[in-house]
Amino acid sequence: MSDLPPAWWRDAVIYQIYPRSFADANGDGIGDLPGIRSRLPYLRDLGVDAVWLSPFYLSPQADAGYDVADYRTVDPIFGSVDDARCLVADAHDLGLRVIVDLVPNHSSDQHDWFRQALAEGPGSPLRGRYHFRDGRGSSGELPPNDWPSIFGGPAWTRVADGQWYLHLFAPEQPDLNWEHPAVADEFRTILRFWLDLGVDGFRIDVAHGLVKEKGLPDIGKETSWHLLDVGESPCFDRPGVHDIYRSWRTILDEYPGERIAVAEAWAPTLARVADYVRPDELHQAFNFSYMSTAWNVPAQRAMIDASLAANDAVGAPTTWTLSNHDVVRHTNRLMQDEQGDVAGKKPAAVDPAAGLRRARAATLLLLALPGSAYLYQGEELGLPEVVDLPPEVRQDPAFHRATGQDGYRDGCRVPIPWSGVTAPYGFGPEGGSSWLPQPDSWAELSVAAQDGVAGSTLSMYRDALALRRKALAGNAALTWHDAPEGVLVLDRGPEFRCTVNMGDSPVRLDAPGELLIASGPVTIEAGVAIIPADTTVWWSL
Ligand code: GLC
Questions:
Q1: Does the bond joining 424 to the residue before it have cis omega, within 30 degrees of 0?
Q2: Would residue 205 show up in a list of annotated catalytic residues for this protein?
Q3: Calpha distance 28→35 (Å, rounded)
């Protein structure tokens, strides 16, 4: 891959694969690595630069693989380490990079370290790799502090010998103690294991959570933390996390080919998120503030400016995302006036045509911005959030812990439709199952149904990604233009313009040049363009 240009990641389009829901080669109803391998040509043709795979390591799947029992083994439901090696090699042959997920904040309770720590009892040195404490109260019957779990309930669970252990997420996800030197050593070797296997980078799960305030102090008031909205707290975004990432950066830099890391870091301000991407730390951080921004001109424009400024200040590219495996798909979410904390919230049903129209407009805006774009599998098909999954099929651990007030992450994780008219729509072998049921209406959204169809969402993504490579190569800076109310107009260099009508009714504007692509039906008559509501247009000037 040495002939690829340097700093590939600065404007890369990175496609998130959620392995259990992408493609199921062995017919057990759960997607797997051989399934992904077989679909890599589809991703090359789509026009993305890289894929990010959510975890596929050995795991009891208490949190869909974000509870890792062995960081160097592939879970048999997904395949083997050899499958991972072949997947990386195939991807490279096709010109695609591969980013894997690293989960350093917590392990599974089935990890050898945790099992040994439990077996060895209170006071044993092995308990020092996690956060074990005695409880409060006369007989230690109360948790050691007042921290809540992000998935609901207290962040502490008591074990048979009376001690408690900390888990910011589910009880099956004990937090590792990053003050313990063995933890840091272990993760440095895990990084090398996957780098030696050939991966191009890592997405760092809960990157802001690794270091806790010394002494694990009380918050002092009743608090509930959400995945994407933790605010100031004694266990998130502590200064010590940055030393960890500096040490990881030196490892990444030892390897050829610009291996990268992207932080899932929720910090209270954009500037604090940008701290994770200072020159000697990680390469990118997800821009969740953008993902939580309402669909209106002042909010979008302000957030785009603020995001670019915060990242420019440290010389890092901004990233842009509209959907991932933790939030309501943007086909539904952008129809809400308020965005706020978007993770795991109960989704609203929306008019599918209106939701799709807005989602497509938002995507063309996102792809016109400077920096790197993250896409989530299925958005290129315009998949809606599945809002009516019955409680008994839901698997998000937060749904069950928070008794259904939270934890609605299954609706964006439904396996994607590839072909055919009945479930599983080519996700797995005909007549097979899927771990979450697919809606009856998904036949018309399948890859096969949209492939080569002018105006389909899949065609729009392919065309936009191809145009982006040509028209936006060089990553030119963004400049704004004055525009009528409800309309956003930006240029990228002297030859590219993007116009977004975020208003409720069509607008008439002088066509500034040749129309490259539009997210909806734009008409141009005598030099005047009529742009419908919720529609984005790219122009060549
Ligand atoms: C991250 C993941 C989410 C997971 C959590 C705990 O936020 O994106 O899916 O549940 O970490 O690992």
A1: yes
A2: yes
A3: 12
DSSP assigned state of 76: T
254 is catalytic: yes
Of the residues 32, 49, 109, 205, only one is catalytic, namely: 205
Closest ligand 1 atom number to CA of residue 151: 10
Neighbour order of strands in the sheet with 97-102:
284-285, 260-263, 201-204, 97-102, 50-53, 13-17, 372-376, 319-321
Report how far ligand 1's centroid is from the alpha carbon of 57 (Å).
14
Secondary structure class of 290 (helix, strand, coil): helix
- Here the tokens at position 107 are 């392990």
Tell me which residue of 390, 454, 391, 447 sits closest to 415, measured CA to CA: 447
Query: Which residue's structure tokens are 């591969």?
Result: 98
Give 10-residue mean pLDDT values along the chain (541 residues): 67 98 98 98 98 98 98 98 98 98 98 98 95 98 95 94 97 98 98 98 97 94 71 89 98 97 94 97 96 95 98 97 96 83 78 97 98 98 96 91 77 98 97 96 97 98 98 93 96 97 97 98 98 98 97
Instruction: Write down the pTM of the prediction.
Output: 0.97
Residue nearest to atom 2 of ligand 1 (CA): 205
Instruction: List Cα–Cα distances, 230 to 45, 191, 208, 227, in angstroms.
Output: 39, 27, 10, 7
Q: Which residue among the candidates 141, 213, 254, 305 is catalytic per the annotation?
A: 254
CA 342 to ligand 1 center in whole angstroms = 13
CA distance 423 to 427: 8
Cα 47 to Cα 155, 291, 380, 466, 475: the distances in Å are 42, 22, 11, 6, 17
Burial class from Cβ neighbours inside 10 Å (0-12, 13-18, 19+) for residue 494 reads exposed
Q: Is 66 in the pocket of ligand 1 (CB under 6 A)?
A: yes
DSSP alpha helices (H): ranges in 213-344?
241-254, 270-274, 288-291, 297-312, 330-333
295 lines ligand 1 (CB under 6 A): no
Helix 81-93, helix 33-46: angle, nearest 10: 10
Please report, to the nearest 10 degrees, the dihedral formed by the alpha carbons of residues 156, 158, 162, 166 taken in order. -30
Contacts of 271 (CB under 8 A, 6+ apart): 310, 313
| Cross-strand pairs, 17 | 53
Whether 326 is in the pocket of ligand 1, judged by its Cβ within 6 Å, is yes
| Degrees to nearest 5, angle at CA 278 with 277 and 283 | 35
Report yes or no: 372 and 317 within 8 Å, Cβ to Cβ: yes
